[in-house]
Each structure stands twice: as structure tokens, then as C-alpha cells.
Amino acid sequence: MSQTLNAVKKLILEGEIKLSSHGYDEITEDHIFIRDILSSINNAQIVEDYPDFGKGPCVLVLQYDGNSMPIHVVWGIPKGHEKPAVLVTAYRPDKSKWTNDYLRRKK
């Protein structure tokens, strides 16, 4: 399990959440509801983990919306801080670029 994802889950429960402006633009464009992202965090599956990312630890996870449609979400925690959980971006994964389970990039 990812330490970053564990920390993000805890921060979400505590209400320590920030939506980046880029994240807002992407969820709006892809018709994703923030409530779906927040309510499905406990079932998130790790796609890629970046504990040493330059701007702070982040993790790309697979989540599902209220219609069981896949969503990729990047969560991060600002470097040098313990909070908030930042929803960096979220998007509907392109089937042509991902395996059928949306957990690995196609080569």
C-alpha cells in the first residue's frame, strides 16, 4: 500500500482537501463529480506511485464514478507539508492508451 494514498485517505476523512485549478478544469471537461471521487477513495487502486516527486509525494489511482465508469485521479501532498490532500487532476482514461483494467499503460 502507498504511504501517500494512506495519507490522502486520512486527510479526506478529516476534510483536508484542496482541488487544484487544473483539477477543476479537467473534472469539468470530463463531466466528473467531486462527490464521486471522494466517495470512492476507499476503493482506489494504485496505478503509479511517486513518493519522491519534486513538488511532493503523489499517486495516480483508479477510481470509479457513480455509474461505475473508470476515473484516473492524481492525488498529492505539497512538499514539506502534511496537508492538505490535493486533487491534482482527474480524467477519464483513454481505452486506446490503457490496458482493459486501466491499471497499466499500453506499450
Task: Please provide the count of β strands.
Answer: 5
Largest pleated sheet: 5 strands, mixed
Quaternary status of these chains? single chain
What overall form do the CA principal axes indicate?
globular
Strand residues, percent: 25-35%
The share of residues in helices is 10-25%
Q: How many discrete structural domains?
A: 1
Give the uncertain stretches in residue-range form: none
Topology order in helix (H) and strand (E) letters? HEHHEEEE
Strand order of the biggest β-sheet: 1-5-4-3-2
Distance linking N and C termini: 25 Å
Output mean pLDDT.
Answer: 96
Structural class: alpha+beta
DSSP summary: helix tally: 3
The gyration radius over C-alpha positions equals 13 Å
Describe the fold and architecture.
- The chain has one domain (3-91).
- Helices cover 24% and strands 28% of the residues.
- The protein has three helices and five strands; from the N terminus they run H-E-H-H-E-E-E-E.
- The chain has helices at 3-13, 21-29, 34-39; strands at residues 17-19, 45-50, 58-64, 70-76, 85-91.
- The two termini are 25 Å apart.
Task: Produce the secondary structure layout.
Layout: H1 3-13, E1 17-19, H2 21-29, H3 34-39, E2 45-50, E3 58-64, E4 70-76, E5 85-91
Parallel strand pairs: 1-5
Antiparallel strand pairs: 2-3, 3-4, 4-5
